[in-house]
Amino acid sequence: MSDEQTPEAIGEIVAACASKAKLAAPDLAGATDEAVDAAIGEMAARLHSGRARILAANAEDVAAAEAAGMSGGLLDRLRITEQRLDDMAEQLRLLASVPHPPQQTPVRDLDGGLRLVELRKPVGVIGANYEARPNVTVDVASQLVKSRNAGVLRTGSAALKSATALVKEVIAPALSDAGIDPDVIQLVPSPDRAAAGALVELPDLIPLVIVRGSGQTTRDLDRRAARHGVRTLAHADGGGVLYYDVKADPSRAEDLITRSLDRLGVCNRLNLLLVHRDIYEGALPGIQEALAKAGVTPSLPPHDHAIGYEWALDGDREATVTIAPVDSLTQAVRIANEDTSGLAAAIVTEDKAAADRFISGYTGTGVFWNAPTRLLDGFKLRGVPETGINLDRVPGPRGPVTFTDLALRQYAVLPA
Fold this sequence. Notes:
By secondary structure, the protein is α/β, with parallel strands linked by helices. The chain folds into 2 domains: 253 residues, 3-Layer(aba) Sandwich (Aldehyde Dehydrogenase, Chain A, domain 1); 140 residues, 3-Layer(aba) Sandwich (Aldehyde Dehydrogenase, Chain A, domain 2), CATH 3.40.309.10. It is 43% helix and 20% strand. The chain has 14 helices and 16 strands. Strand 8, helix 10 and strand 9 form a beta-alpha-beta unit. The longest helix has 23 residues. The radius of gyration is 23 Å and the shape is globular. The model has no long low-confidence stretch (mean pLDDT 94).
């Protein structure tokens, strides 16, 4: 390892990015609503004007990933297409049009001619760690700008050329054109994994980090951040659950199964299918036909893996769904709560009482009745891009996190 690549040197690179962002943060915090929305709108325009350079950079990333043997699902996440650029631009235009939340909200009058108001304040600098999903560069940066927070973005080596092109061709010039210091959004230039660790060890510069990606690496970063006094919005695991109830319409259930598997490398795809034992044998042929239509094979009992094993993370077997019979709706809810990530669960049934019991019992971030867990996505649910999906079981932002969640509450007592 060269001197330039030591963990200490990488830590200095991340700290330098954070210092730049912190220095520029007041410029964004004081920007007008019009300037913020103009910057986001200009990002959308530059996704079109700079698309040739963006696609060329992404093609280099994809070629390198293919040569390294990256799985199909992860390659799908990494790849930028003309259509995906158009979709990214449309999301930015919609975000620019969303009204800003009030910066001051009256709470109540106090004795002595005083009044209490609640103020929204930006966090300051927010970090974001994510892997081979270059579109997240724009998603997170736009959410940070809309919430008036500076940011330090870190992505893995697989997507670094794409992310660099997006910052250089889209984000930085759009901010400059709107009169906002482009230093408010920093991209860590190092592909080294040590940069992820450094990002969660700077509480005085980056008090909050969005940790995206799935698996043990993300959980380790979450714990590392806690040791250094850095708060996280962590998305470590995924995998959607579907419970096929005894009173389900088979054609509806099979359609949901197929629609839940349109993309295999995403966290909210169907991962575990629980089927009421009374209909299991009769429903299985239709289920297998629906899976075959999606190009997916079932993992049937007896399983040689944990029931909640997340197939999207298994490059060799990502085109798999676990199927298991359950004795009751209660058992299905228990498995979804205790043996899976808690990301999302759905019930397919024509029985409203059963659906109500399932919705009441499930404690994860999103619950669905006769709808696919693929809908657990910030843009699909809330009409704006997300920074990630927070799975914490404590008060605070939970589920798809958007710009409205990236603020601090401050109480102010003022003359009436």
